Amino acid sequence: MVTGSTAISQLPTGTIDSLLAVLPLSIGMPSSPSTIRSSLETLRDYLLPPEYIDGLNISYVTSGSISVSPGTAYISSLNKAIHVTGSITAAVANAGANVSGTWSHVYLRENAGAAAVEISTGTPSTPYAGVARTKTGDTSRRWIGSVFHDAGGYLFRFASNIYGNVFRMNWIVVDNGSFFEYTGISGSTVTRDISHLIPLAGATNEIHIRPIFILGAGGDMLGAVGETVLFGGNTTPEQYLRQTTATAANLSLPASPIKISGSTIQAMTSHFAGGGSMSLRVRGISIQR
To answer: Is residue 93 part of a domain?
Structure first.
């Protein structure tokens, strides 16, 4: 059992002095109810766990800007949480022409006592508590997500939402073979590299895949997609698909998540009649933050 004195002694350096500075308590009663309320709210910010994050969704505004919604996150250098009370819009610099995709990282920080957002190519750190990360070498910046640039260096349009401490983004793009398409999968198991679609190793826990069957007349085909494909008999991977006796056509299925721990996925097809192949379109990712 942790005693009160033990718990206090384990608080981060500087926390006790910070608490004493904001609490107007003495032997007598505090000066007013509003002072009590303000003091308790400040105390709460110091006592939230160091991995705490709530809200702070990142939304696409233009090809050169994003907005961060209201929310709260703990900032390591401050030993407390700070609040975003209204949406913050921030410019995202063009990343320059590239052929493999580029990420920018979004950080929450405090500026002159107010919450602010920084967009940087500086990478997030290793986790300091749970899955929470700061900017590498700068604990005053709390990582809240990342955004992806196209070949011209501009932001890809995306839709997003927050699920607990997970930031989920889905790209809204036209066909783009350089970044999002894996075509012509037929027969034996193939492994596809998705490292360019992952902002940080160990932080991305799902990738969202839309399979597309390319079928001949009377096609009868099985397809499997997963981080590791287990195909054949009654063994199934994370996605196991079958289309039978189809007319010649392309059949697109809704995107669904695949759990990942590395930077590759696998896929395989088996043809029983009519021929054909399968393509995969990467639609988005989920980031733990």
So the answer is: yes
